[in-house]
Amino acid sequence: MNNDTPSDLHLKLRNLESADYPQVAQLMEAVYADIGGAWSHDSLLALIKEFPEGQIAIQDNSRIIAVALTVKCRYDRFSRSHTYDDLIGRRDRIRHAPDGDALYGMDVFVSREYRGLRLGRRLYDARKELCRNLNLRAILAGGRIVKYHEHADMTPAEYIEAVRRREVHDPILSFQLANDFEVKRLMKGYLPEDEKSLGYATLLEWNNILYEPEGIAVEEIRKTTVRVGILQWQMRLTDSFETWLSQVEYFVDSMADYQADFVMFPEFFNAPLMGMGDQHNQFEAIRFLATFADRITEALSHFAVTYNINIIAGSMPAMEGDVLYNNAYLCRRDGTVGIQPKIHITPHERRDWVISGGDSLQVFDTDAGRIGILICYDVEFPELPRLLAKHAMDILFVPFWTDTKNGFLRVQRCAQARAIENECYVAIGGSVGNLPQVQNVDIQYAQSAVYSPSDFAFPHDAIMAESTPNTEMALVADLDLDKLAQLRHQGSVTNSKDRRDDLFDLRWLGSGLKPN
């Protein structure tokens, strides 16, 4: 407690009134002398008139000693990078959005002689209560980092991390973190005249866990964090369809227990069933395997509904008339099924199995984002993911089967490039183990992973999660779709925005490529 703090306290929390302006201005001039001082009379009075419940003060007897100024804003706009000036309209009017779905904390300031009484926390608690009462989704704020000039040998990110670890005390950021705010991103040029922060600020967010969207159907609520499960599936001989299917169900059940939104099986994950047929004729053996496609799809669709998880059924050979395709199946947890055929067929598939390439491509709408599926070799053709990205794909799933490390590396390197080029997540999943009695599927090599774009909001190596090579295991990763939106608009580079469409064009001439 400050030694100069008055001893005869009589504190009261209330909303500001127009008559309070002289005291508020005097307090702001003292606290913000380094960045412009007080707001104008007209600015503050307009804000009190437009949003009186958001302007909160603490008075001691009749003296204003602490203030929190707040506006309503649109979350989608101000949860991304912005500047302080973005909140200021014409004639220094503060931008208040009456129909906004979040609060924005403009300023909090406390008289120096009353510091140590935790009045800032009291104001923040009042703001949080207001957020809950108005059923708003969050409180956002741009937080100065006022001690950064004393640690300019650090990068801003290093400074923030040092404050988070309590190695450095920053009066504003330390206070925000202690009040349950999270740093969402670093903002450069937020307040250029802020010399102490060297122009930087943090975008801070407090989420209202009681928020319930109004007037929005449940099925229209967009998930922002998606959990994906990737199965690095071990090929093993099986003596019956039922035995093989029970293994599939085991992994679906396990991923559902982890509350995954998706689980992906590898390419040709049903290959062990080939061991139940005649291996002397590979043309006939792969067509024997295709006879299981409908039964497997029906069973997986049932699992998707029963276990409440979207299942990407790697790929399976399937007959359409006299033509054999290699199809991936999306079994949604709402009971619907989508199909994505493999478009580019490898020489081995074409020569030994006489598989044909499909001619349809599409982005799938799901309850956990818009996704694309490309089977193994298809990810090595950058045009396909680019077309999917142009149709707002968030996550690309790539079930694959490779027998050697060099084959795997082709898939891996291309998948990583596709994540960067198209500003999306890419999940790859393959199989391991051996099937000595099944020709052409006898050995496997895989290291399943989830890749991200390469920017500050993502892991430094752009790998969200990665498995141990050649070991059966399940990989789980949480993917933040909001980070993709931020990247596409304000990343270090913005591939989709900067593409020179005036110089070249990319068109899909096949069927599909529409929400399915």
Automatic annotation (TrEMBL):
Residues 226-481 form the CN hydrolase domain. Residues 11-205 form the N-acetyltransferase domain. GO terms for molecular function: acyltransferase activity, transferring groups other than amino-acyl groups; hydrolase activity. Pfam families: Acetyltransf_1 (PF00583), CN_hydrolase (PF00795). The keyword Hydrolase applies. Keywords: Hydrolase. Gene3D superfamilies: 3.40.630.30, Carbon-nitrogen hydrolase. InterPro entries: Acyl_CoA_acyltransferase, C-N_Hydrolase, C-N_Hydrolase_sf, GNAT_dom. This is Hydrolase. PANTHER family: HYDROLASE YHCX (PTHR23088:SF50), NITRILASE-RELATED (PTHR23088). It comes from Candidatus Tenderia electrophaga.
